[in-house]
Design goal:
Elements (H helix, E strand, L loop, with lengths): L5 H4 L5 H14 L5 E2 L11 H12 L12 H15 L8 E4 L4 H10 L7 E6 L3 H9 L3 E6 L10 H7 L4 E7 L11 H11 L6 E5 L24 E6 L12 E4 L4 H11 L5 H12 L3 H21 L15 E2 L4 H7 L4 H12 L1 E2 L1 E2 L14 E4 L4 H22 L1
Parallel strand pairs: 1-10, 3-4, 3-5, 5-6, 6-7
Antiparallel strand pairs: 2-8, 7-8, 9-12, 11-12
C-alpha cells in the first residue's frame, strides 16, 4: 500500500468537529445531549439573503466568477469593512474566499518560506487551525499566552519577548475564539508600538466576530497609524449573518491581495457565485436580523456567565465579544477528582450529557493559567439553563463520592 505523507499524517484539525462526531454518536444511541461545542449561530440565514440566492439561481448565475470575487461583492465588502473599522479600503484590495478560514493559509504561505525558520506568532489558546496551518506551511509556530487576569488579552511584553529577526507574521484574533476576549484600543496601541520597531512583521487580523462586540466599540489594529498596509484584515459573512454553510469570507490588504488571488486560483478557483450574490444582499440589505442576533447573544452571554458563576468550583469572566464562555474549572476538577479539563469534559459528556470543549483543543495548556473549558452560547436559553443545571448537579454528585 502506498504511504501517505508525513505532512498529512501530522496535520492538525478543528477538534470541535471531532467532539461533534462523539456527540452525534451518543445521540444516535438515544442519549439526551445538550451541546455547546460548535461555534455557529443557531439562527437561520435572514430571509432576504435566502431570496437573493434564489434570484441568483433563477437568473442563471451558476458559473465561475473571477478568482478575486464578483465586483459587486468586492465593492460591498470594501465599504463594509472600511465603515466598521473607520478606514478607507479599496475594492481592488479585497479578495473573496470560500469562507474566511482559507485566508489563514494564504496569509502564511504569502509571507513565509517553507523550512527556513520563518516564525509566526499566534494566540494560545487560539483557533486550532492557526497552529496546524503554520506547521503544514513549513513555518515555526510561536505561541503567545493569553492571561485570564487580563481578560484573555496578552501582555505586550510577552509579545516583545517572542519577536525575533525570523518573525514574519503575528496573528491577532479579536473578538477571540475560544475565550470571547477582546483587544481594546489600549491593547492595540501597545501592540502597534512594539510592531513599529519590527517592520518585517506582517499582521493577520482575524476579525470574523467584529460585529459581535458587547463591551465598548470594536477597534481594528488596521485603524492605527502605520498599521493598515501591513495588516491583513480577515472578515466574512458566517458569524454576522448566520451564513456558516454558505462559505463566504473576504480579506483585504493593499500589497497581498494579488497574491491571495493567485492562491484562490490554485485552490478553489473561486467562491460559489450563488453565495457571493447572497453576501452582497447580506451586506447591503436590512440589518435588522443581524442586530437581533447580536442582542440575543448578549442576553445569552449574561445568562450563561451568571449561571456558570453559581456552579460549584467554577468561575467565569464576562467575555467581551463573540459567543463563547471560557470558565475556569480548576477547582471543579479537584472536587470531582478529574485529572484535567479533558478528563472533566469527557465525564461531563458521558455522565451528564453536556458537550463542551476542553482547553487542550485550542493549543497546549498555558502554564499557570489553570484548567478551562469552552461553551458556545449559540444555543437557546432553555438549553443553557438545562446544560448548566446538569453540570452543577454532576459536580455536586461526584464531589460527595470523592469526599
Amino acid at each position: 500500500m502506498p504511504r501517505i505523507s508525513r505532512r498529512t499524517a501530522e496535520l492538525g484539525t478543528e477538534n470541535a468537529f471531532v467532539v461533534l462526531a462523539e456527540v452525534n454518536e451518543l445521540a444516535r444511541q438515544g442519549k439526551d445531549i445538550v451541546s455547546f461545542c460548535i461555534g455557529q449561530p443557531d439562527f437561520p440565514t435572514p430571509a432576504n439573503v435566502q431570496e437573493a440566492a434564489i434570484r441568483a439561481i433563477r437568473e442563471g448565475k451558476h458559473g465561475y466568477t473571477p478568482s478575486a470575487g464578483i465586483n459587486e461583492l468586492r465593492e460591498a465588502a470594501a465599504r463594509y469593512m472600511g465603515t466598521v473599522r473607520g478606514i478607507e479600503i479599496r475594492p481592488e484590495d479585497v479578495v473573496v474566499g470560500a469562507g474566511a478560514k482559507p485566508f489563514i493559509a494564504y496569509a502564511i504561505l504569502s509571507v513565509t518560506d517553507y523550512g527556513v525558520g520563518d516564525e509566526v506568532i499566534y494566540p494560545n489558546p487560539g483557533f486550532p487551525i492557526y497552529e496546524s496551518q503554520i506547521q503544514v506551511c513549513g513555518a515555526v509556530p510561536v505561541p503567545l499566552p493569553l492571561r485570564e487576569a487580563r481578560d484573555f488579552a496578552f501582555d505586550p511584553e510577552d509579545l516583545q519577548a517572542r519577536i525575533t529577526p525570523r518573525t514574519r507574521l503575528l496573528i491577532l484574533n479579536s473578538p477571540h475564539n475560544p475565550t470571547g476576549g477582546i483587544l481594546g484600543k489600549r491593547d492595540l496601541e501597545g501592540i502597534a508600538a512594539i510592531l513599529r520597531r519590527h517592520p518585517q512583521v506582517w499582521i493577520y487580523a482575524d476579525e470574523i466576530y467584529s460585529r459581535l462586540v458587547y463591551e465598548g466599540a470594536f477597534v481594528s489594529i488596521a485603524s492605527l497609524p502605520g498599521m493598515l498596509e501591513r495588516t491583513i484584515i480577515s472578515d466574512g459573512a458566517s458569524k454576522t449573518w448566520a451564513m456558516t454553510g454558505w462559505r463566504i469570507g473576504f480579506a483585504s490588504n493593499p500589497v497581498l491581495a494579488p497574491q491571495f488571488v493567485r492562491w484562490v486560483t490554485n485552490t478553489d478557483s473561486c467562491a460559489s457565485q450563488i453565495s457571493q450574490w447572497a453576501a452582497v444582499e447580506a451586506i447591503q440589505g436590512p440589518q435588522d436580523d443581524a442586530e437581533a442576533m447580536r442582542r440575543s447573544f448578549l442576553a445569552r452571554r449574561d445568562l450563561i456567565v451568571a449561571l456558570l458563576n453559581g456552579v460549584p468550583g467554577v468561575s467565569c469572566r464576562t467575555p467581551g465579544g463573540a459567543f463563547y464562555a471560557w470558565p475556569n474549572v480548576t477547582e471543579a476538577c479537584r472536587m470531582i477528582g478529574a485529572a484535567d479539563s479533558e478528563d472533566f469534559r469527557k465525564r461531563l459528556l458521558n455522565e451528564a450529557g453536556v458537550a463542551v470543549l476542553a482547553d487542550i483543543h485550542f493549543g497546549a495548556r498555558v502554564a499557570g493559567e489553570g484548567q478551562h473549558v469552552r461553551f458556545s452560547y449559540a444555543a437557546s436559553r432553555e438549553a443553557i439553563e438545562a446544560g448548566i443545571a446538569r453540570m452543577a448537579d454532576f459536580i455536586r454528585r461526584n464531589t460527595v463520592r470523592a469526599a
